[in-house]
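User: Structure please.
Assistant: Input sequence and predicted structure:
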Amino acid sequence: MARYSKVCGVSTRRPGVSGHWIPAEGIEKLPPHILQEGAFRPAPLREDVKLENSTNKAAAHAERALGGLDEAAARLPNRGTLVRVTQLREASSSLDLEGLFFALPEIMAMDLPDVDQEARVDQRVLLLRRADDDAAEEIRRGEGIGRTLLGRTARTLAGVSMRESPGDGDLMEQVPWRTAPAWLGGPRAEDAYLLSTPPGPELRAGVAEFVTWLEADSDLPLVARLALAHYQLAVLQPVLHSEHLARLLIPLGFIREGALRDQSLAPSLWFSRANEDYRRQIRAVVDRGDVDSWVTFFADGVRRLCESQVELVHRLQKIRDEQLSKLNQRNDGLARLVDALIGNPVFNTELAVNLSGLTVRQVHSLVKRLEQAQLVRKLDRNRLVRKKNQQVVREVPDVVKAIGMFDHLPLRKDRNVFDT
């Protein structure tokens, strides 16, 4: 096949070009048209991007929705409830995009203490959640997003130990660079819709430019800046799990800039649901430099995710209140246990004790009452787990169902938060 390169021009409104193409050949199973066009190396990101008024408006609406989400999270007895639920949904949806599907209760039971679980769920779910939690903590400590993602988190996900502390040495030497071709479109080469920059000097240069831009001060709207950052990292794909890192970059950016206090946004939920549109938007930036459409699409996703999360908070609050009302008794121990199970609806005795601070005897008594009221039930052992050390795994079905929902809108009382 002939080797060639081309420069992809953009609208005269845009500075420079969207990137350039590097000849590619010999990659098995790539679609012929992808192999023919070559690998894409995106142009360095710029600060002097002039966005249309409608784009800036969409970004502003998304930032307003972020504020509504952060306020809603504060109404939960424990903000960590929403964080854990969000991380589980993010890990699950992230693997959905790779064609791996698991039931939510199976994922929730992965890190239960003293449970012998059948190996049905890919261990990457747990690894992704723990890596995300670690990354968010690093950002709160003041570490840079680029260094955290491409150094610490990338090495964790690749199973590579840190030779130095994250703040030491040259970041480019910490990055566990990929050594094979990479593409956007899923794990199968035949599904590729864009071939990423090949390993080597071009890729390293692109990442160095990206990190410099990411850590610099900016006057761009926050949502627009993160939209561009996500695009750049996703297209470059410098390491294994780059697409997950590009999605994780989004809540980390909001945390760093104070728009969110913790990881209460799961971008993979939106990208999984809007996967075809996502692909078209990425190609529109690559082929035409259509930044406005991309930022608007991204901002709409952030806003819709915030709406979904606010509705989830309302549903969890409602379930909690209904459970306490059905039991017709609001003692402190019961409230503590119910609050603990709202964020951990698949549990055993040890986990319930650890989370609630109650004694084993108190937990046994209260769980029995919850079962009698049909608010808690034993989890089907054929679906998930078996007993070990007499620990029985149970679930709160109403909470599991609520967490599994995505296509829902805010309640009327909070709709003004998202009015345009």
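The first helix runs from residue 32 to 37.
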